[in-house]
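Thread: "does anyone have the structure for this chain?"

Original post by V.I.:
We have the sequence but no experimental structure in hand. Need at least a predicted one for the grant figures.
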Amino acid sequence: MDSSQPKFLLIDGDGQVLGACLDAEGVFVEPTKSAESATVEILGCLPVQRLRDYLEGSKRYRLRNPLWLEGLRMLDAAGEPLADFWVGEIIEWRPSQLDPERVDIIAEWGYDSPRSGARHIWERWRTARPDQINQWAVYGSEGRREWLTVVGRSSFRQTGPADRPAGRTYHLDGAHVTDETSFYLAAGEAINGPGGYFGWNLDALNDCLCGGFGATTPFTLIWSDSQAARQSLTVILEEMDDAPTLFEIIQTIFAERGVEVVLR
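Reply from O.Q.:
Generated one for you, tokens below.
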């Protein structure tokens, strides 16, 4: 990635861009039980005039002209939005050593920041979004959960294509569906292609089947290598005799929404 290309945008409460930023330190946070707030150092931010006036203004000016930050928007290599993260009050700032026209800003950070152990997954997405299905399959359970987090957060930063017409046939590659997370990853790619989203839990799956997420019911889902999921998605969610397994619940949700699932 070009070092002069912004990796982040600083966004205000109205969704307006306050500055394009070259980098940031402290984005990936180690989980802690400490009540102390984390901070993020936003580097090489080229501020719009409103932000520059606020930073350079007196305390009285800032009180009269408050500036409400909303988020730090992570961009991919093409400059497209990947995900937004909450950023709080500006703590301090200084001229940037990267560029005299830019500033470095330290702000409150933390509650929805990505975990330090997930940096490689986020960086992989930021460098190049998935262009083939099952690129998540090389990761263990934690890596797959973080991949699904990226899928979910990036999908809501984009205006996806209109729902395709009813009656379509989709193909779910089930070879790597060995836990609940991998089912949602495979389902998202079956409907919306590499890196696609189609739910992250059972309620979200049901919502996706109501429309607005790429497909219109009724449709047919051909699920290849379904035996892997049948053997893995065996958790029982209800304490009752003859309670269905997770695999069976998924089939029921599909059926109730008019999806014909062909298990192969």
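V.I.: this helps a lot. The chain has two domains: 8-117, 130-263.
O.Q.: and The CA atoms of residues 122 and 150 lie 7 Å apart.
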